[in-house]
Write a structure and sequence with these properties.
Length: 156
């Protein structure tokens, strides 16, 4: 979601309003900020810090503790390539390399055009289909490096 600075400030103030003068709201606030912008953006954290009188370091301490929070923008599509044992044995490293080559996306990073984020992950629970990757919520199994580009083309 693309917001002007003024719109962003207004939305952040709405998010934190119920937590003024109360403690314990950081996690729901961070969840709401991420829902608003797709990640926990620094300007929003600054507003929370000033308004709730919580040091930025404390907010970032919470945000970095939980894997669910992202501090940088993420791609529109999240590619998760399984690197579990069954997938590894069946060539998942080549799948990962093919995804990196075709998207230009680094591992645990995001393409500049914000089309893709790429995350190698442990077992996705579909070992019978190894090697497996997940794009958003869709599972693709019995992958070959040659088949990767056709799959990724579906996600623009
Ligand atoms: S090891 Fe890849 S799905 Fe289980």
């Amino acid at each position: 979601m693309s917001l002007s600075a003024g719109e962003m400030r207004q939305k952040v103030l709405e998010i934190i309003a119920p937590w003024k003068g109360r403690r314990g709201g950081l996690i729901p606030i961070l969840q709401a900020l991420q829902g608003l912008m797709g990640y926990v953006a620094e300007p929003a954290v600054k507003i929370v810090s000033e308004e709730l009188k919580i040091p930025m370091s404390e907010i970032y301490g919470v945000a970095t503790f939980y894997a669910q929070f992202h501090l940088t923008p993420r791609g529109r599509h999240i590619i998760r390539v399984c690197r579990g044992t069954a997938c590894h044995v069946r060539g998942s490293l080549k799948i990962l390399e093919a995804v990196k080559e075709q998207t230009g996306c680094p591992e645990n990073g995001t393409t500049e055009d914000l089309r893709f984020s790429l995350e190698p992950v442990a077992c996705l629970g579909a070992c019978g289909l190894a090697p497996v990757m997940l794009v958003d919520s869709q599972t693709f199994g019995r992958l070959t490096p040659e088949g990767v580009s056709g799959i990724l083309a579906q996600f623009v």
